[in-house]
Amino acid sequence: MEEKKLTAESLNNSDAALLQDIEDALANCMKCGNCQAGCPIYRETKKEFSVARGKISLMQAVLSGKLPISEEFDTIMASCLNCKTCSANCPCGVKADDLILRGRNAAIKARGLHPVKKTIFSLLSNRPLFNAALRMGGMFGWLTFKDIPDKNAVFSRFPVPGMDPNRATAPLASKPLRSQYPEVIKTAGAKHRVAFFTGCTINFMYTDMGKAVIDVLTENGNEVVLPGKQHCCGTPVHVSGCFDLANEMAKHNIEVFEECRADYIVGACGSCVEALKDYPKWLKDEPEWQERAQRLADRVREISEFLVETGYHTDNLGRIDKRVTMHDPCHMVRGIKITEQPRQILKSIPGVDFVEMKEHDRCCGSGGSFCLAHYELSRQINDRKCKNIAATNADYVCASCPSCRMHITDGIVQNHMPQTVYHPIQLLAAAYQKGREKA
Amino acid sequence: MEKMQLAAAMEKIVGKENVLYSPEALYEYSYDATPGHSYMPDVVVSPGTAQEVSEIMKYANEHKIPVYPRGSGTNLSAGTAPLDGGIVLLMLRFNKIIDVDLENLIAEVEVGVIVQEINDHIAQYGLIYPPDPGTVKTASLGGTIAENSGGLRGLKYGITKNYVQGLEVVLANGDIIHTGGKNVKDVSGYDMTKLFTGSEGTLGIVTKALLKLVPAPEAAKSMIAVFDTLEDAGNAVSGIIAAKIIPATLEILDNATIRTVEDFMHVGLPVDAAAILLIEVDGHPIVVDDEAKKVLAVLKENNSREVTLAKSPEHKEQLWTARRMALPCLAKLRPTTFVEDATIPRSKIPQFLKIVTKASADHNVTIGTFGHAGDGNMHPTIVCDLRDEAEMQRVHDAMDDIFKGALALGGTLSGEHGIGLGKLPWMEQQHGKEGMNAMKAVKRALDPNLILNPGKLLGEC
User: Fold this and answer.
1) Do residue B287 and residue B341 come from a single domain?
2) How far B286 CA sits from the closest chain A CA (Å)?
3) Which residue in A67, A63, A66, A78 sits closest to A108, CA to CA?
4) Domain limit, last residue, from B182, B215, B248
5) Are residues B116 and B203 in the same domain?
6) Which of A32, A57, A92 sits opposite B27 (nearest CB)?
7) Average pLDDT, chain B
8) CB of A45 within 8 Å of any CB in chain B?
């Protein structure tokens, strides 16, 4: 009896040790509960373990040896969209989103990685295999998916493990973006050499977004480089708490983009761009890599940020006579803090009637893989977003993030709404196209 | 095993999905926003109807199990901490605004609704529900009724008790009673509505309230005034009231708070000033104009070295940065934050602030004070580190000086946060043995088995 008690205690002690280095950061939470006001999950569940205060308290319970890192600890840490609303509004400046990732990291160390994630991540860690699998998926996409007209979305014909059968998702492209272009797209008298970090979703699913980015970049006199060896930015792995693997992916990308000697590295997905800008933070324990990551990060721009900073033509834009509203993806508004530039671009297009929706900076409920694991909850969160979209009577919804595009498109389909979701750059590309047709 | 029995009994009443008892879940409901209070409950139960609450209370009363009603758990007096095990009664499923009666200006609201949601809902009718505690975006109505919360507008508009006109309450024995009603005048029997408002969950479980609503003011004018001495600032506060003007807000920031905010925000605050006053008058546009002029005159008469009138709503937001950021900036100084709410007659503000400054120096603890000068409700905010035992002793000693000082000035221990556990040690000093006995008699009459939020407000009963 006595021996068993000691074992449990020593287990708790080793779990506590996993969180030791964030003890001070956790102690800064004064438990005011202000995070309840913004948390999209708490808004639906009204349960303390949904919100940052609860998760921080739970980590402190582990730290003090009161509780072990249990399966429920793991589940509670997983129940977060990483939308950063809590951190943005914390009166004490606690970076709860980072601390929750640390909690996930500790859970992996104490309990191992979830088997499903283990399989996906091992595929993700092998770049050639990952590329081949997704390319094959796209070639036979028509077999598995049924098109939804005008939405660039599909329903699955067969049950897919881990996915709700009624969910509208993005189609896998029959040919990935990077296979459609040469590695270097030359422009005569180029102003800048710009490397395009496509990200997985744009490369394998939303190639229309990628094409728009390339069109707009070349239209504005930039040479575009599409490094073939670029890999997933690492965000899905990093936010799962698998820091080691995410850091390996970061290093790979740093090497690839160092090689292409571009003036800028441009991305069109808020989460990818945030990752590239955050690599120095990810690699803080390896000073040499951190320095290389910093040199890269200094040249990283989100596409609208790049265009507004370096200038873009507005004299040859055709009209788009549509009412347009915009959703601010979490990693855009609270991650890299870019909200004005995409609006500026949309408003510069002749004919666009721009209207703000209510709560435009609130999470759409996607949270990357969160919406796969918690589809019903992420739908509830998304239904609020759809209600706000409907109230604007907009024709188009713009979002600078492919995951948001996918999840909001699903919401629009489920709620039988007329809107189509685009990346802001797609409207700019379309306006250039119309301008050319007129001329 | 007993705990499993309790959980099973609760599941029978509210359904499996509304009962939590895993160690993780219990830990999540062991605390509220008060530093240093964490006690494990046996079960967390979320009822959805007054009938279910009644059944829970009957069971708890029969088995003498403590019950702690809880909303968002954002209170600052450990009012919801489950001191003695038992049932945490989570009231957030009571989430409906049932009715807004525009002819009688009464809203019928369940206690789990967040206060801000009430205001968001009634804005369409040009009405407001004035009590606006700092936690207005998170606090549940039930929590603000239990604590009788105030807020920034207390001086002109009053506090929660002035707006609660009727209640549905489940008593300790499971009886469901209805107090008050929609009548403006109502002297039928004891005023049970006022008795339950501010009772901190020790007398009954409130499930629904009838709330008085008032028309939203048409116009407002804001200004900020800087003072070199506390006396001048204090005289200005009294002077404004003496000029027969009741501002909607009349806030004060002391020097420690001004310096802290400026350190973090760099907004150009006068770090050498003894105090800043922030004033807002609201109402009919013509009256507002006239009152703003009179307030300006009073501020100048009392040697304010600088007065700025807000030119636009954006400018107002800018001017009020100092007040809005006071607590966040103080809280960032150290890990642990105690926001106290000792309150004194408004004429005693300068003396009180000197007591706080002396306590801070005598015991070597960091205290910034801001608060609602108009109604004398001060917030001495003590920042420290709960993990440092020696420092916590000094914090307690400083609190002792502050509370005793407030009482000596004819003040009270709490203006709006409640007694809970945090201020128990000073209760008898304020109310005397006889006063405490009278309150305990009320408690025993309504809760003979002492199962409702035991140990709070009165301590041992």
Assistant:
1) no
2) 33
3) A78
4) B215
5) yes
6) A57
7) 96
8) no
Q: Architecture of A316-438 per CATH?
A: 3-Layer(aba) Sandwich (3.40)
Query: Are B354 and B371 in a shared domain?
Result: yes
> Does any CB of chain A come closer than 8 Å to the CB of residue B22?
yes
Cβ–Cβ under 8 Å, residues B414 and B77: yes
Domain boundaries, chain A: 2-112, 316-438
- The reply to whether B58 and B136 lie within a common domain is no
| B72, B336, B386: residue with CB nearest A33 | B72
The whole domain housing B258 covers 219-316
B256 part of a folded domain: yes
CB proximity A71 to B under 8 Å = no
Which of B180, B215, B250 is the last residue before a domain boundary? B215
Chain B: nearest CA to A370, how far in angstroms? 21
Confidence of residue A1 (pLDDT cuts 50, 70, 90): very low
Q: What is the mean pLDDT of residues B354-358?
A: 95
Q: Which CATH architecture has domain A2-112?
A: Orthogonal Bundle (1.10)
pLDDT tens string B168-184: 999 999 999 999 999 99
Assess whether B348 and B423 both reside in one domain.
yes
Our CA-based measurement puts residue A2 at a distance from the nearest CA of chain B, in whole angstroms, of 21
Going by C-beta distance under 8 Å and a sequence separation of 6 or more, which residues neighbour residue A163?
A156, A169, A372, A375
Interface residue A376 vs chain B (CB under 8 A): no
For residue A232, pLDDT beyond 50: yes
- Asked if A49's CB is within 8 angstroms of B24's CB, the reply is yes
- How far does the CA of residue A149 sit from the closest CA of chain B (Å)? 38
Q: What Å distances lie between residue B82 and B32, B67, B432, B443, CA to CA?
A: 10, 8, 27, 18
Contact A327, A364 (CB under 8 A): yes
Q: Please count the structural domains in chain B.
A: 4
Chain B 35-94, residues with CB within 8 Å of chain A CB atoms: 35, 72-74, 92-93
**Average pLDDT of span A26-35:** 95
On whether the CB atoms of residues A388 and A51 are closer than 8 A, the answer is no
User: Cα separations (Å) of A166 from A112, A201, A382, B440?
Assistant: 32, 21, 15, 60
By Cβ distance, the residue of A33, A47, A67 closest to B138 is A33
Give a yes or no: residue B438 inside a domain.
yes
Question: B408 with B351, same domain?
Answer: yes
Q: Any chain B CB within 8 A of the CB of A33?
A: yes
Kindly determine whether residue B386 and residue A49, on different chains, have CB atoms separated by under 8 Å.
no
Q: Quick check: B93 and A46 CB within 8 A?
A: yes
Smallest Cα–Cα separation from B43: which of B62, B52, B30, B34? B30
